[in-house]
Amino acid sequence: MLGYKEKTFILLFLVFAVVFFNGGLVEAADSSAQSSLEAPVFNSQVAVVSFLIVLVLILFIWEPLPVGIIAISIPVILITLKNWTEVTAEQALSGFSNNATITVMAMFVISRGIQNSGAVQILGSKIEGFAGDNKKKQVGAIAGLTGVIASAINNTPVVAAFIPMVTNLARRTKVSPSKLLIPLSYSAMLGGTITLFGTSTNILASEVSAKLINHPFGVFEFTKLGIIAFLVGFLYLITIGYYLTPEHISYGDKDLMKGYEMDEFLTEVEIKKDSPLLGESIGEVFKEIEPDLDIIQMTRENEQFMEPLNVKTIRAGDHLVIRATRETLLDFIKTKGIELLPDSQISQSQLEDSVQGQKVIELIVSDNSFVEGKTIKDVNFLERYNASLLAVRHGERIRHNDLKDFTLRAGDVLLLLVSKSTFGRLENNKNFIVEENISEAPAYDTADIGLGIGIIGIVIALASLNIISISIATLGGVVAMVAVNLVDPREIYEAINWEVFFLLAGLIPLGVAIEQTGTAKFIAHQLLKATDIFPPLIILSLFYLFTAVLTSVISNNASVVLMIPVAVGAAQQMGANPFAFILAITFASSSAFLSPIGYQTNLMIYGPGGYKFKDFIVVGTPLLILLSIIIPFFISVFWGI
Fold first, then answer.
1. What is the secondary structure of 202-215 as a DSSP string?
2. 162, pLDDT greater than 60
3. Which domains are assigned to the chain?
4. Is the entire prediction scored with pTM above 0.90?
């Protein structure tokens, strides 16, 4: 049975086959009779670049390799096929030195500085005081605050900072986090459309617009349209969206173990005096047995021990908490002198030890984490962090078996038993987001908050007043963040989302090839042939809708690079305003409401919310249809078509 990726691939292949080749071969046959004013020619250059577009889309959806690796292979392919792509070596490498790439890289670091200052966390901590346990108020407060903050700094770190706050709020007020996390992600996307700095998509679109029509975006050029888009989304999320958003995870009970259905997988046993295992180390015993049986904790004379347990010698009277299926456990203890305790069901309170600092936590794999695409075993996770792994949640699915071979993705949630020192290490590790039931917000220095807000304010002012270029302004912001100790120099490298960096560096030269080979004009001509019965406003809406659907299965930045040249080509052939079409594509690329895979913020909430793939379709489709009508209409009002 085909999965969603396979179905998406077939759909995209059919769409692009129709777009590229509908009438193309006929036009090629008659090309010798065409003048430069007639329909664009389907020649070998267009065919090769069109094939590359389809290939890139398939690879981005299928992901046989990390997206960043796929992206940086694009310049190599373009040069290999330079007779058809017409791309020079300098153009192929232009993405690495592009203003958009540099600005996006700098904004990641500035956003980390704002996050380190505590400004985002302090604001987030005020939500509970305002909303209490009123779910609608919680949704409204989260959506409103997220959108405002995401308008000034990159929206991805905003969501990363808010996820623990939102899940803790849900736990304390016994509200399902599923009800709150989709509004968090959607409002971050829409808030990112308010200013140029809100998302990497805007910055990249500005650069592409500058190259194609010599019109880069001003910092606040589309703010009025962004505010309208955000307000529409906000009103939707607290009305229709509120009722469509599911409630998958229940926090009615504070015991995380119940939420992860651990009843059947954790058991306590006792080592008897006649056990043949006495005197052996746990590591020696368990390396030769069923691989999906793990020792989570040992209790000896009322003292609890956890990872690393391999060197512990087994003694009579030891109590072991074992993670395994009932059948696996019974097979193991038959001849080992081990007794299954009568009341062996394990609760969270039994595992935790406040004296020694052992606690059960949820750990989210952050976007751009080094563990993405790797298994627990590959990264030596349990030994590296001295943690005991209980279960893994991926979207709605909870995994209890074969955990060491589970491939981790952004948004996956690990249920762990950790020590106090391990908790501290994980809390300060930007590869992960720690969810913990805390009653008070951590203390932050108000001076740091003032410095962080002041620096981002100066960067925005310098760029918006055209005193210096946006790339230089943001690099200056990075220097300032380091100078005032809001960002450690060593932290710069981990603050940057290198996948996005390589994605921009690889896609920008593909955009060059699409434009200068005439592929953009050819595709635009094919799209216009299919829609020539509609007025320009309807065509603008269709471009918005198609781009938003595309963004939901590939990255937002890829959608901008692929679709803006096509949209400009269509506008020029219709005699329409190309800037209006660029804005439609830019806003549509921040409308990845239909799936958890098209936008980083959706990926990050997928596991913590326990969502199903269809939840994004159910909640996102009405909003997308609404925006595909409203945004093109207001573009026509403000800028004309």
1. HHHHHHHHHHHHS-
2. yes
3. 103-246+448-498 (no CATH), 255-436 (3.30.70.1450)
4. no
